[in-house]
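Chain and conformation:
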Amino acid sequence: MPDDAMTIPLSRADLRAVTAYAVRCASSALAVFEAARPDDGRPRAAVDVAQAFADGGERTKALRDAAWAAHRAAQETRDAGLAAASAAARAAGDAAGAAFLHPLAKATQVRHVLGSAAHAARALELAAGDDPAVGAGHLARLRSLAGPDVVDVLRRYPAAPPGGGRVGALLRQLDAALR
């Protein structure tokens, strides 16, 4: 297993594959956010700019700005007591952030690969009355969306770290299933 001092080989194609996967994951939960905040386009904008990168666009400041904006939307909805919408917005922010996966052999980098999926599963779980079966079922669907290129990148990193509450548990569940 790599140690913290090592770097992981990552190509632009790897980053695009991971980002495309994160976009598919976040897209699956966007409706949860949009139902709660139909006039707030920040999460959708984050998904759109991430998709543009995955489709061959450049990795620009717009990606970072969109990711931060979606995370602000997540904080605002969390503060308003809209936990499902918050998780969906966080999934969108993580999709834009996936383009910035670091080539560091650290378990924390797994969140860049699978964070969008874990937050999307949590959003749907919460929207269904905090039903863990919904989250587990959604993870199974998201697992099938991860192509061999995403799995190959994931396997270059140590396993997902402990912690992170329910989202962390979903992340580790998906990580173990994909490896």
